């Protein structure tokens, strides 16, 4: 009797992400993922569930990558200012691949509105750490929200700043954070 085949979770998620990036949410189907992975549709469904579940796993993986990078930059207990500085750096220092991933993630979140709750929780946690009862907290909150706006505009291709413009925006946000604007 042969060994039960295993499905490499990360490999399948990589393939699903590739499909999402190339073909958008409409092209991301269980069948397309199964074909790309060389496994049965039933195998994908048994390991990953529905397309919605697959998108949730991609979002969870992207979120964990963000958290890991964030922790490497600021450590365990960053101040609100340090946390927002790291967020500015991570959100605005994107290459083309990162921008494409961000746009794909946003498109998937729009299509699968059930995932908005997790994103809302993430934002609630981040904003709660930026207490609006102090000047520093208000500056941090404003810089955070401005960073998110710039991130979204870039991710959706509404703006395409040059590297120099991005460096200038990053410097402006950091100055805002320190009260130097």
UniProtKB/TrEMBL annotation:
<feature type="domain" description="HTH tetR-type">
    <location>
        <begin position="6"/>
        <end position="66"/>
    </location>
</feature>
<keyword id="KW-0805">Transcription regulation</keyword>
<dbReference type="Pfam" id="PF17937">
    <property type="entry name" value="TetR_C_28"/>
</dbReference>
<protein>
    <submittedName>
        <fullName>TetR/AcrR family transcriptional regulator</fullName>
    </submittedName>
</protein>
<keyword id="KW-0238">DNA-binding</keyword>
<dbReference type="Pfam" id="PF00440">
    <property type="entry name" value="TetR_N"/>
</dbReference>
<keyword id="KW-0804">Transcription</keyword>
<feature type="DNA-binding region" description="H-T-H motif">
    <location>
        <begin position="29"/>
        <end position="48"/>
    </location>
</feature>
<dbReference type="InterPro" id="IPR009057">
    <property type="entry name" value="Homeodomain-like_sf"/>
</dbReference>
<dbReference type="InterPro" id="IPR001647">
    <property type="entry name" value="HTH_TetR"/>
</dbReference>
<dbReference type="InterPro" id="IPR041479">
    <property type="entry name" value="TetR_CgmR_C"/>
</dbReference>
